[in-house]
Amino acid sequence: MLFLTTCSHSWIAKPKDVPGYKRCQPFKGGPQMVKIPHFERSFLLTDGCWFMDTERVSIAMYLFFKEWKKRFSPDSRAEQDVLNALNALMVEVGDSKKTVTAYTMDGTIWSGASASGLTVSPTWVWIRVRDGQRLCDTSFVHELIHVVIWATKKTDGDPDHLGSKYYGWKIDHNVLMQEVNELLCRWGV
Length: 189
Description:
Elements: E1 32-35, E2 43-46, H1 54-72, H2 76-86, E3 90-94, E4 98-103, E5 109-115, E6 117-121, E7 124-128, H3 140-153, H4 171-186
Parallel strand pairs: 2-3, 3-7
Antiparallel strand pairs: 1-2, 4-5, 6-7
Helix pairs in contact: 1-4, 2-3
């Protein structure tokens, strides 16, 4: 006999002490840049408030940082470098398709790849988010790993992942990505 349990409740983060002018304005046309709570100079750039709320992004970034520290036990300088990068992160979200030349996880170069996310610079990531998609089902945590590597390495975010051209990405990063995404999914983020 098989018993299934489901949850139909959709969790929505409602900030308590955030003035209305600092929140995404759903009826305002065009792109908006909205402050990500608890991260000093981090912003969410979005074409519409329905893509992703800043509270979920903040939760994901905080959880990622805590789990990264636990897994990698960085020295105080590396920890501060990563915190500085997260505190200055621009997270761009949208549903547009982007075709790029990029590396696969094993380091093979792939032309004409459909990107689900990009680490554009040390402190700027782009994430493709479809309507109603949870953050744990996007490439956000994957892109945060590139940000962490770039922050500690200073030269690049290891674009070829486990390939041999660049260094920095390890199997432990894949494990971290899996664990953080599982936690976020469990929390409905």
